[in-house]
């Protein structure tokens, strides 16, 4: 490539020899048929080298937009380059919605699904669980269509880009709905200790934020249908809009007035119309069983002084169980601890390893798109269907067209 290409955070400089912008699925097939190594870039919001390659890097952003609502209005088919913000706006015009969204609406649907990215809510499973159909180009350059009738779908959806290039997805949709968003400051540690499950269930989506300088949580963000007023588990309602990271401009955040608004303007933390921060951060995230949520918080609290030195903010939220093989929520309701670190890899990685050490007794599962240092054997052991996934990858990509160093380390 004539110029370097980085991920959104800038901590990964891709080593690809060429960057392609195919304008059709046929062009993607031709690229795959030419042989690898080949990886798909997505929207670049992964913080590790998952998308890196020494061969060809492919962006699907130039594919023709596909937006096809099924006759029964229960699903929508979209192209592999569409982002959630665009999808949400088009669904809203049709009176439809997806069940949840991630913090950022700027991410691609295919990339979010491939990494089991999620929003929050004790009754809300991650974004990949909405996939009822997947169209991909496998390592032989052949188009494969999977539906829920095919047992391979549960393995291919959270696929890390390993089974093939996803050119289209079919997603479950629901009728459009409205939510209100509220922010509360200073959530007492005593409330978290005694009523964590109740807190995280007190809304469609609930997030606690802490900088780990103390044992209280700095903020709680609640997205819910019913209005609320007064204190919340001992916390007080914020006196104005907030950004999850203290000191950052609140105008980038979604409406927190408590006024009802369309689902896609409340579920993300950030507005689609504002470009996200310049990426001056690294991120890690670990999922534990919901029953171990407080134990995970206590584990991190035991090293909070060290965590706080390199942390911008930590978000704590719940995600419902699913049956997707590489989902961190596979067969267990989960609580996730998400760390937004400073943009200093050398300073952050030793702390990430320390977080993993204290969480290890709780069998944490990492978010695939974030920074983690867990040994590959530990990562494989964390996912009960990992061996089945490795077999699926060998069937779909026998020549290793989509394999890179990151994948080889995880798979082997």
Automatic annotation (TrEMBL):
Keywords: Oxidoreductase. Residues 12-176 form the FAD-binding PCMH-type domain. It holds the Pfam family FAD_binding_4. It comes from the Bacteria. Residues 240-261 are annotated as: Disordered. SUPFAM superfamilies: FAD-binding/transporter-associated domain-like (SSF56176). InterPro entries: ALO_C, FAD-bd_PCMH, FAD-bd_PCMH-like_sf, FAD-bd_PCMH_sub1, FAD-bd_PCMH_sub2, FAD_lactone_oxidase-like, Oxid_FAD_bind_N, Vanillyl_alc_oxidase_C-sub2. This is FAD-binding protein. The lineage of its organism: Bacteria, Bacillati, Actinomycetota, Actinomycetes, Micromonosporales.
């Amino acid at each position: 490539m004539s110029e370097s290409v980085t991920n959104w955070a800038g901590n990964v400089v891709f080593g690809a020899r060429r960057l392609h912008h195919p304008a059709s699925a046929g062009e993607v097939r031709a690229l795959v048929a030419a042989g690898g190594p080949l990886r798909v870039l997505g929207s670049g919001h992964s913080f590790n080298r998952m998308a890196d390659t020494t061969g060809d890097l492919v962006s699907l952003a130039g594919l023709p937009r596909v937006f096809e609502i099924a006759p029964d209005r229960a699903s929508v088919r979209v192209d592999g380059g569409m982002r959630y913000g665009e999808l949400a706006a088009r669904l809203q015009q049709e009176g439809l919605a997806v069940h949840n969204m991630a913090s950022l609406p700027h991410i691609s649907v295919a990339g979010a699904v491939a990494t089991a990215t999620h929003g929050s809510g004790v009754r809300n499973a991650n974004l990949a669980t909405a996939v009822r159909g997947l169209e991909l180009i496998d390592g032989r350059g052949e188009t494969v269509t999977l539906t829920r009738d095919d047992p391979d779908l549960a393995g291919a959806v959270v696929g890390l880009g390993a089974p093939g290039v996803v050119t289209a997805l079919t997603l479950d949709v629901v009728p459009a709905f409205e939510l209100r968003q509220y922010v509360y400051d200073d959530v007492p540690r005593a409330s978290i200790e005694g009523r964590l499950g109740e807190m995280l269930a007190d809304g469609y989506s609930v997030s606690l934020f802490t900088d780990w300088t103390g044992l209280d949580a700095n903020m709680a963000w609640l997205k819910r249908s019913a209005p609320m007023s007064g204190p919340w588990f001992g916390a007080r309602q914020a006196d104005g809009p907030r950004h999850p990271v203290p000191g950052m401009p609140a105008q980038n955040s979604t409406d927190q007035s408590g006024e009802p608004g369309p689902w896609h303007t409340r579920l993300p933390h950030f507005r689609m119309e504002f470009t996200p921060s310049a990426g001056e951060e690294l991120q890690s995230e670990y999922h534990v069983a919901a029953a171990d949520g407080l134990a995970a918080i206590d584990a991190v609290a035991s090293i909070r002084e060290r965590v706080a030195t390199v942390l911008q903010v930590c978000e704590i939220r719940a995600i419902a169980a699913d049956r997707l093989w590489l989902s961190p929520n596979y067969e267990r309701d989960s609580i996730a601890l998400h760390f937004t670190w400073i943009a200093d890899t050398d300073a952050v990685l030793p702390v990430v390893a320390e977080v993993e050490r204290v969480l290890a007794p709780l069998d944490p599962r990492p978010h695939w798109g974030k920074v983690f240092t867990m040994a590959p054997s530990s990562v494989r052991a964390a996912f009960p269907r990992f061996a089945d996934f490795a077999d699926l990858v060998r069937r779909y990509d026998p020549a290793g067209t989509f394999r890179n160093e990151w994948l080889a380390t995880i798979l082997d």
